Amino acid sequence: MRCRLNMHFSPLMVTTFNDEIHLTSQNEDHHPYIKPTKRPEDLKKQKLVLRSQSTMFALAVFLLLLTETTAHKPHDTSGHGRGCIAREREALLSIKAGMVDDDSLSLFSSWHGQDCCRWMGVRCSNRTGHVVKLDLHEGFLVGEISSSLKDLEHLQHLD
Fold first, then answer.
1. Can the keyword rRNA processing be found in this entry's annotation (predicted)?
2. What pTM was computed for the model?
3. pLDDT at residue number 65
4. pLDDT tens, position by position, 16-54
5. Are residues 154 and 94 in the same domain?
6. Has residue 28 been placed in a domain?
């Protein structure tokens, strides 16, 4: 579709391409703000550039959000990531049974439930779930340490 418009006594050419309307000035000296339409190839390139810029922007926003959510994720301070090994939990409970804690705020007060890695004084490997540290120095303990201590095969630190 082509038609002529006279606007401010200057001829304009109206054309359509892909259902888009384009105005071109036949005399640019009279209308410096109206530029000739771009060729269809230029429009395709421009759309491709805009699309790739939009994709890059969306990717950058996604990575930023991903970084923010992982940066603010609370770190596991309990020293475990897999849970307690049942055999090692039984060994710890056997050690507890052989000891008496004279403190009213007993070290053993947290020693209940299935996950011994959450118990006070117990640290587990994040990777394997094995007990690697047993820290009993906080309590006022009296008694004998059970032979079940040998069942904590991955124990690296005992205090």
1. no
2. 0.49
3. 80
4. 556 565 555 555 455 555 555 567 777 788 888 888 888
5. yes
6. yes
Domain extent at residue 53: 3-58
Task: Count how many domains the chain has.
Answer: 2
What's the pLDDT tens digit per position in 83-95?
Answer: 889 999 999 999 8
By the 10 Å C-beta count (0-12 exposed, 13-18 middle, 19+ buried), 67 is classed as: exposed
Residue 65 in any domain: the answer is no
CB 118 within 8 A of CB 78: yes
Contact criterion met (CB below 8 Å) for 107 and 136: yes
The pLDDT of residue 4 is 46
- Amino acid letter, 127: R
Strands (E) in the chain, as ranges, are 3-7, 10-17, 20-25, 99-101, 122-124, 131-134, 141-143, 157-158
